[in-house]
Specification:
Blueprint: E1 2-7, H1 11-20, H2 23-26, E2 28-34, H3 37-47, E3 51-55, H4 63-73, E4 78-83, H5 88-96, E5 101-104, H6 109-132, H7 143-161, H8 165-182, H9 189-210, H10 219-222, H11 228-248, H12 251-268, H13 275-281, H14 286-297, H15 301-317, H16 324-330, H17 336-347, H18 351-357
Parallel strand pairs: 1-2, 1-3, 3-4, 4-5
Helix pairs in contact: 3-4, 6-7, 7-8, 8-11, 9-11, 12-14
């Protein structure tokens, strides 16, 4: 059974996650809890969970540093982020750390279980990839290096699945560091040939599954580079070229998707929607949606959602007899204090000041 670690400094929040998760149905069990980031990192090393559900604002190691550390130390770990704040800096770090979901508190049961289900599906996909791709792993000197190597392969495949070119190049950089440490005197030619062919085979299998490209790269057509660094650079070129080719082949789809996304947000901005949930709905990666939305509209997704909420809040605040707390809830903010902060940041006025200025 796969294991889950919950990290949150508020006991009631940890209890809520435990109560709302459909653990048995998903084949999961809560292996442990931690009340801050420092304790969370220690628990990850000790328990080796498959999935971490973590808050962002905590004492000690905060959520941003925690996500960075988890992503660096355990790239195969699946991460679900919780936050009581609709803060773009947090969302940005969650995206960079490949979080499966970014959820605002209070947690919605369907959203939590949907995110857990995606984690399980991704873990199963990663296991299948390891067993079916790169079938002849390198003979690395020790078990620790082999484990790191396997994790980097999973990370590389995940970046392909997300069409995340920076993540793919970063994983390959880490792979080069590992290979230099494993073979300080340099790997021999048969090993380089095997590594290069295996890397390209994984890429061909991915492209064949996606049915996105008609001419996947072939090792024989490129020749085998003569060093670990050259192999990694050649793989980086091949992976970057493939991702660019896939994205370039879908320009009309991307434009159509953004028009649909804008319409969807206009209709659902009061719901607890996120970049992740929207990307899943439109069958695109978070990174692709974020870039396309920004280039098309001039705003990122989070900014657009906030702007639509505040525009509607302005309309409701002038309605006689409507309480500010009801306005906040109607436009998607469950916490009144947070609504006040966001409203003032957007308009320069508190909701009360805005209402007073427009009172007849």
């Amino acid at each position: 059974m796969r294991t889950v670690l919950i990290i949150d400094d508020e006991p009631w929040a940890r209890e809520a996650v435990k109560a709302l998760g459909e653990w048995s149905r998903l084949g999961l069990t809560v292996a442990g809890e931690a009340e801050d980031g420092t304790q969370g990192l220690r628990s990850i090393e000790r328990l080796k969970p498959d999935i971490v559900v973590t808050d962002m604002r905590m004492p000690g190691v905060d959520g941003v540093k925690l996500l960075q550390a988890m992503n660096e130390r355990v790239p195969s770990l699946k991460i679900i982020v919780m936050s009581g704040y609709d803060d773009f800096a947090y969302l940005k770090q969650a995206i960079q750390s490949r979080a499966v979901e970014y959820m605002l508190k209070p947690i919605d049961p369907a959203e939590l279980n949907g995110a857990l289900e995606r984690c399980v599906r991704d873990l199963e996909q990663a296991e299948q990839t390891v067993s079916t791709s790169w079938r002849s792993p390198l003979a690395l000197p020790d078990a620790a290096m082999m484990e790191r190597y396997l994790l980097l392969r999973q990370r590389l495949y995940a970046s392909l699945f997300e069409l995340n070119k920076p993540a793919a190049l970063q994983a390959l950089d880490k792979l080069e560091e590992l290979l230099r440490a494993a073979y300080p005197g340099g790997a021999d030619e048969p090993m380089l040939r095997q590594m290069y062919a295996d890397g390209l085979r994984t890429l061909r299998e991915f492209m064949a599954e996606r049915r996105e490209a008609s001419a996947p790269p072939d090792a024989s057509s490129r020749g085998t580079p003569k060093s670990a660094g050259a192999v990694v650079r050649a793989l980086a070129d091949a992976y970057a070229e493939a991702i660019d080719r896939i994205e370039a082949s879908r320009p009309s789809k991307a434009k159509l998707a953004i028009a649909q996304v804008v319409r969807y947000i206009d209709e659902h901005y009061a719901d607890p929607i996120t970049l992740e949930s929207i990307a899943l709905r439109f069958y695109v990666s978070k990174e692709h949606l974020s870039r396309s939305f920004k280039s098309t509209t001039g705003e990122n997704v989070s900014e657009y959602i906030v702007r639509r909420r505040i525009e509607r809040a302005k309309e409701l605040l002038v309605v006689p007899g409507m309480a500010t707390k009801d306005v906040a809830r109607t436009v998607g903010y469950s916490e009144l204090a947070y609504f006040h902060r966001i409203f003032k940041k957007q308009t320069g006025l508190t909701p009360g000041e805005f209402r007073a200025e427009r009172r007849p």
